[in-house]
Design a protein that fits this description.
13 strands; seven-stranded antiparallel beta sheet; six-stranded antiparallel beta sheet; 1 helix; mainly beta
Length: 197
């Protein structure tokens, strides 16, 4: 019985060692993807990542959130060019440092199509949404906006849904938590993105 337990322990130990070695070998060091100092965006075939922070720079996103000015410095854009109503634009942005609130936009192509002066009024009945996650992990969303409440508004003055197209506009309104209906208010929100994919 003692030999059987030792044999079982050795097999377990060898299995763990082999798995650890495979994981270690399969991991490779990834180099940070930082743009040269003369540009403001990093481009890949699937997304654009902006690392700029000021509204005076080329690409940005900022808003006053519950009275606090927040500049989102890390912006990732995924432009799905599927034909028909399933085409989407997904934008994820967060701030730098330990205090990292993030915001995500998921916008479906409207019936009228992608165009300048496009507006969204997002609430519980819309398939498109905005989600904001605080530093404490609380999730606020436009899908929690109840009937009778004011919808979260996105107004695009420029919407070029194409490679190298510029998307700019404003955001405003309140997002809510599902469980307790606590809200967070966005004011003076400004966005300017570039679709590099």
């Amino acid at each position: 019985m003692k030999i059987y337990r030792q044999s079982k322990n050795i097999k377990t130990l060898l299995s763990v060692a082999v798995i650890s070695a495979l994981v270690f070998i399969s991991c490779e060091e990834k180099q940070p993807n930082t743009p040269p100092s003369s540009t403001t965006a990093t481009t890949s075939t699937t997304a654009t990542t902006s690392t700029t922070s000021s509204t005076s720079s080329t690409f940005y996103m900022s808003a006053v959130v519950d009275g606090k000015n927040i500049e989102f410095k890390n912006i990732s854009i995924d432009r799905d060019t599927t034909v028909g109503q399933t085409a989407t634009l997904q934008v994820v942005a967060n701030t730098e440092g330990i205090d990292r609130p993030s915001i995500e936009f998921y916008l479906q192509k409207p019936l009228s199509g992608w165009a300048n002066n496009l507006s969204y009024a997002l609430d519980y009945k819309e398939p498109s949404y905005v989600k904001y996650v605080t530093t404490g992990g609380r999730v606020y969303s436009s899908i929690n906006i109840s009937p009778g409440d004011t919808a979260f508004k996105i107004k695009f003055s420029k919407f070029e849904f194409q490679k190298d197209g510029i998307i700019e506009g404003t955001i405003s309104g309140a997002l809510k938590i599902d469980l307790d209906l606590t809200s967070v208010v966005f004011e003076n929100g400004k966005i300017r993105f570039k679709c590099d994919d």
